[in-house]
Write a structure and sequence with these properties.
With 329 residues, the protein is of the alpha+beta class. The chain has 11 helices and 8 strands. The strands form 2 sheets. The chain has a 4-stranded antiparallel beta sheet with strand order 1-8-3-6. Helix 7 crosses helix 8.
């Protein structure tokens, strides 16, 4: 609402100027995207969120003296960068701070609050401009909002303190997931959630980690040791497949294809591995494209045991389709 009046009365650009100002926000967001993604990995986000709010609000005060459309566009680029910082890091902070079982309800309330605030702003801003003028509305948006944000500083500090401890606890597991190269498109918050859900398990020599035909319920990352792989597959003739050593992963086929385990994996020496629950693994791939390494690896392994089966991993993020009348498995 403010941009409409600003474009008409101060910049002299009419309706077109309103579009240019919005475009400036978009340009700033795109320019800041790479930096914001790295910021999401920082353990302390509260002060960064406040700085993002300052970057979004304070440049608005320049509109009190600026009447050049080009300068106004540059101001909007700065504000767009601040917008993205706040949007991304606020959601990241929520994901880190809340238990998984309440996250959906909290996000529902969060976005309801966002929409309510937008509606309130659209209702109040014309009244403020009509009663007190454009400059007053600029002062409120540019100065009053940052001051109000400072009221949240004590809460943000407590949140940061808790997140620092939590991040330090899961950081070694996050680094393991990052080195795999199979979740290269997953965001830092999603990797942290997977790491928090993972558990480290010890497998003495001879332990059957997964058994062919059983329900697929977890994804495994081999930290140390070696495992043997045997499968019957479609031919019902048990045969050995190449063994796997430290740094390998397994268990993804059943989760991606929604089928029982396609092979038996047994520890041949004392081994240590991360066990990630299947729902956490699938959530990560639902919220980010699966990497080429993961999909191609799943296809290759599936072709060894079920050569006539058409993989479904590449369409993991599409709505589930009805099963065919006859399935080879």
């Amino acid at each position: 609402v403010q941009f409409v009046v600003l474009s008409e009365e101060r910049l002299g650009t009419g309706a077109d100027g309103f579009g240019y100002l919005l475009a400036g926000l978009g340009v700033g967001g795109i320019a800041a995207a790479g930096l914001v993604n790295r910021m999401a990995g920082w353990p302390r986000l509260g002060s960064v969120i406040l700085l993002g709010m300052a970057l979004y609000c304070l440049p608005t005060l320049l509109f009190l003296v600026v009447d050049d459309p080009v300068v106004a566009f540059a101001i909007q680029v700065l504000r767009g960068a601040g917008t993205l910082v706040v949007d991304v890091l606020a959601i990241t902070a929520l994901q880190r701070s809340l238990p998984k079982d309440v996250l959906g309800r909290v996000f529902g309330a969060f976005f309801t609050g966002v929409l309510a605030a937008i509606s309130l702003g659209a209702l109040v801003t014309p009244m403020v401009i009509s009663a007190f003028g454009l400059d007053t509305s600029i002062w409120l948006a540019g100065a009053a909002l940052p001051v109000l944000c400072l009221l949240g500083l004590p809460f943000l500090r407590r949140m940061d303190a808790a997140n620092v401890a939590r991040t330090a606890e899961v950081e070694p597991r996050v680094q393991v997931l990052e080195r795999l190269g199979i979740l290269t498109e997953a965001s830092r918050p999603m990797l942290e959630r997977m790491a928090a859900d993972a558990e480290e398990v010890e497998a003495p020599a001879g332990t059957v980690v997964i058994r062919e035909g059983e329900e697929a319920d977890a994804f495994y990352v081999l930290l140390d040791g070696q495992v043997a792989v045997r499968a019957r597959g479609e031919e019902s003739v048990e045969r050995d497949l190449p063994p796997m050593e430290s740094g390998a992963w397994f268990g993804e086929i059943g989760l991606l294809e929604r089928i029982p385990r396609t092979a038996t994996v047994t520890a041949t020496v004392p081994s240590r591995m991360l066990r990630i629950p299947g729902d956490a693994f699938v959530d990560a791939l639902t919220n980010a494209p699966a990497s080429t390494a993961l999909l191609e690896g799943a296809r290759s392994r599936l072709s060894r045991t079920h050569p006539h089966r058409t993989p479904r991993a590449a369409v993991l993020d599409r709505p589930e389709q009805p099963e065919p009348a006859e399935r080879p498995d």
